[in-house]
Amino acid sequence: MSDTFKAILVSRDAEKKQSVEIVDLTEADLMEGDVTVAVEATTVNYKDGLAITGKAPVVRRWPLVPGIDFAGTVIESSHADWRKGDKVILNGWGVGETHYGAYAARARVRGDWLVPLPDGMSPHDAMAVGTAGYTAMLAVMALERHGIVPDRGPVVVTGAAGGVGSVAISILSTLGYHVIASTGRNAESPYLIDLGAAEVISRDELSQPAKPLAKERWAGGVDSVGTHTLANVLSMTSYGGAIAACGLAGGMDLPTSVAPFILRGVSLLGIDSVMAPKAVRLEAWRRIGADLDLKKLSILSRSIGFDGIIGAARDIVEGKIRGRVVVDL
Known about the structure:
CATH superfamily of the largest domain: Medium-chain alcohol dehydrogenases, catalytic domain
Number of strands: 15
Low-confidence stretches: none
Radius of gyration: 20 Å
Number of domains: 2
CATH architecture of the largest domain: Alpha-Beta Complex
Strand content: 25-35%
Shape: globular
Distance between the termini: 19 Å
């Protein structure tokens, strides 16, 4: 039938054993919502990798189409803000976790969850940024609100070769910050310097148990790793500095002390992209359009087709993906 389309479906059996398959769906199979979108591009985020591999309990409704973000064109709408033909972006809101997500040619969602595609940006560009890049921009905005401007001193970006890290480096360097990139993949140093990093350090410098306080090395930072890495980053943040925490690629624990907070006035800024209010999302995407050098998107992203999603999901969880992966539908 011509009205079917391919989708990735994750399911689990009575023993809670997870399986992943490619199935044919129709629009009648989609979940409730007041806007239907033709998905033109999506991406593979770390969270999507966890959902497809089952390495963490991301999926909370079974069966489910994963995929936490997409860009595309409205094909049907009963929502006041959207008309057929509008170009839109979706990030988060539980899509790909509790609501059918992006890994299908069609998505039906609530119009309140959508934001407009910025002028001059294609759906492919938007997904080269994706939720990882939108999260990176939320982190940069949080640092700015805390007064961490370029003349305050260097900023560190951990997990630098990953999606959040790659976009964070690109944005921060464009804005004039001296960026120190921390990576476990030393071979990626030329890539990180191409994105705008001024220095590249080995994650080994940050991966051991942290001292309560260490030598001050940076005024701020963006951390997507957590655990000992974040503890070390905090211990090395200068007086009055701030670190934006937005990920857990290394672990969910935070083995630190109160010393950085009470002796140096350091702030830990929590970044959530999933439920961020619409006004914050609109500002983040406006800033992405203004402050991200779109030429860098070709450096930090590569494209795959629908059939490459499952393999890329496995690779991203194993730390084998550099930058961003765009899925062109």
